[in-house]
Structure formats: C-alpha cells, structure tokens
Amino acid sequence: MLSVETRHAIHPEHAFSMGTDELRHHFLASGMFADGEIRLIYTHYDRFVMGGAVPNGEALVLDVVAETKTANFLERREMGVVNIGETGTVQAAGQTYTLERGDVLYLGMGSGPVTFAGKGRFYIVSSPAHRACPSRLITLSESKQIKTGAVETSNKRTINQFIHPLVMESCQLVLGYTTLEDGSVWNTMPAHVHDRRMEAYLYFNLPANGRVLHLMGEPQETRHLFIGNEEGAISPPWSIHSGAGTCSYSFIWAMAGDNVDYTDMDFVQPEDLR
C-alpha cells in the first residue's frame, strides 16, 4: 500500500501567525511508519520527499507515484534510504542490497522500481536529479565520522556523513545522521540557516515518553515543535533548525537545493535569537 501526502511551501510571514495546530500541520512529519505500507510526504520545498517503508514480512514496491507524473518514481529523481530497524533488503536496477541497522543506501536517477523486504524499517528521502550518479550502499563503518561538541555545552555528539561529497557522489541530495551522547541534549547550537537548501529531520532512538523540542522559524521570530520518536520536521530554507531533547536521541538530516556543500550555512548566535 502506498499513500502520499502533499505539503505546500509556506511564506515566513504566514508562519508568524500560526498557532500550534497549524504549525504541526505544515511542518511536523508524523505517521510515516506503518506495518505493510509505504507512506510518503511530498513537499514543495525543492520537491523533496520524505517517508517510511515497513515491509513487516511482505515485500513493498515503490514504483509509480502520481505526484511526480513520471513513468516511475526515480525516473528523474535520486533517493536515500536509511534502515532504522532490523536487517532488511532493498532491490533496485537488478541489484539487491542488504541493510543492517544504521546502513544507508543511495539510489541514483533511473534506478527504476524499488522493492523493500525483510525486517527493515526504512526511512526514505528523495530529491529531483538532473544526472545519474552510481548507486551505492554505505555502511556505518564507511561513513565519515566527526566527533564534535562538548559536555560543558551539553552537545557532545557524533556526526556520521553518508551521502556527502567527502564519501560519495550525488546530484543534490546530502544525508547523514547525528547521535547525542548521554547527558547531551542540544543537536545544533549555535543554530543556523541555509537559504540555498531546505532540510528535513527525522528523530529516532527516543523512548516512548521522550521528546525533542525542535526550534524553527526565522531567527527573530522563532517557533517550536515538540517531536516524538520516528517523527520528523520539515525545515524551510528561511528557518533555523535546532533542538534539545529530554533524553539521548539520534536524528537523520537530509538536504536538497542549490549545492551539496555541507558547510554552506549562516550561523545565528544564541544571543541573537528571539
């Protein structure tokens, strides 16, 4: 079963006037993981797609998505898949890839239908592509690992870069994930924006009662979302994206836009936030 929800782009002035329910309706990505289903959110931010596939013992095929008006979903797109569950497989373009928990698969433009199977819990991101790059499975050990932050600032964390220029070639998709160490809560501080790219977060590895306070909005007009396990946030180019959790957690970040320069960001110091 395939379902697709469309999210339209929101002007920052519109976001200023939104209450809690309206903010969550437009920017919170929830309900993406359901047994036996593929659920996608199609956004009008750089035509980015995010979603989940949970085979639950029965193969699921992602092929035609009406919203793209193409013969198949990857005809003019590239895709990243992160397994946040048990061992599973992904098949595309005649190749079968086995993904352990934490592994990432990149599928280039033109890979055709994609089949998800096994016990995997697959997080899917996709963006338009103008050229085909080689598909590749990147294991956790093959990612570029960066240790950053400090206990004193409550943000000691490990960043693993997967679909990233320092690891592999992609068209415009960039993806990795960050894991907070015990006792650290801030995922990004100082906050930043990057007007050249949109970004999406998926928070995971939280207990049932754990939450992340996700900060968003323009630096002078901040807003927030409380987000639970396996829920995400859609971050427009004009919005900061930072947050603090009630416990240790991980989050997947994925971006698409004008460039693949991970360092292309404009920092906003805490004293300048409102």
List the helices and strands and how they pair.
Blueprint: E1 2-7, H1 12-16, H2 20-27, E2 28-29, E3 37-43, E4 49-54, E5 60-62, E6 77-83, E7 88-92, E8 95-99, E9 104-107, E10 114-118, E11 122-128, E12 136-138, E13 144-148, E14 157-163, E15 174-180, E16 191-193, E17 197-204, E18 212-218, E19 221-227, E20 231-235, E21 242-245, E22 250-257, E23 266-268
Parallel strand pairs: 1-3
Antiparallel strand pairs: 2-20, 3-4, 4-11, 5-10, 6-9, 6-11, 7-8, 7-10, 9-12, 13-14, 14-15, 15-22, 16-23, 17-20, 17-22, 18-19, 18-21
In short:
The protein has 2 helices and 23 strands.
Strand count: 23
Helix content: under 10%
Total count of helical runs of at least 4 residues: 2
Question: For the CA atoms, what is the radius of gyration?
Answer: 18 Å
Q: From the structure provided, what is the oligomeric state, counting identical versus distinct chains?
A: single chain
Say what the CATH topology is. Answer: Jelly Rolls
Main sheet makeup: 7 strands, mixed
Count the domains: 1
Strand order of the largest sheet: 1-3-4-11-6-9-12
Going by CATH, what is the homologous superfamily? Jelly Rolls
Q: Which structural class do you get from the secondary structure elements? A: mainly beta
CATH architecture: Sandwich
Secondary-structure element series = EHHEEEEEEEEEEEEEEEEEEEEEE
CATH class: Mainly Beta
Please give a structural write-up:
A 7-stranded mixed β-sheet has the order 1-3-4-11-6-9-12, with no helix packed on it. Strands 2-20-17-22-15-14-13 form a 7-stranded antiparallel β-sheet. The protein has a 4-stranded antiparallel β-sheet with strand order 5-10-7-8, with no helix packed on it. It has 274 residues and is mostly beta strands. It has helices at 12-16, 20-27; strands at residues 2-7, 28-29, 37-43, 49-54, 60-62, 77-83, 88-92, 95-99, 104-107, 114-118, 122-128, 136-138, 144-148, 157-163, 174-180, 191-193, 197-204, 212-218, 221-227, 231-235, 242-245, 250-257, 266-268. It has one domain (2-272): Jelly Rolls (Sandwich). A hairpin with a 2-residue loop joins β7 and β8. The termini are far apart. The protein contains 2 helices and 23 strands.
